[in-house]
Amino acid sequence: MPTITKALARGSFGTSMSDLYTVPTTGTTAILTNIVVTNSTSGSVTFNLLLDGVELFANAQIDSYGTLTVDLKQVLDANSTPKKIRGFANAAGVRYHLSGVEIS
Question: Mind listing the domains of the chain with CATH numbers?
Fold first, then answer.
């Protein structure tokens, strides 16, 4: 089973719920190991992040020009329905970086 350490996803949150990462294939397990969220605006913002439909962050606030970093070990198994990481923010200018490994 190859294990690939990688940036699972990075980009800007939209202001409505959207997919940020989907486990790529049925035989793959993804392990989310790090989350970084940054606010590049002059006001505080909130964001939501869901792992397979379960809120990990709900209206979490980041102050102006702030950064949130989280180290964790969360397994997202692929089965007949691929698991997803989804999220959104209340304003533009909120960026995310999701790191982890994929095992296939």
Answer: 3-103 (2.60.120)
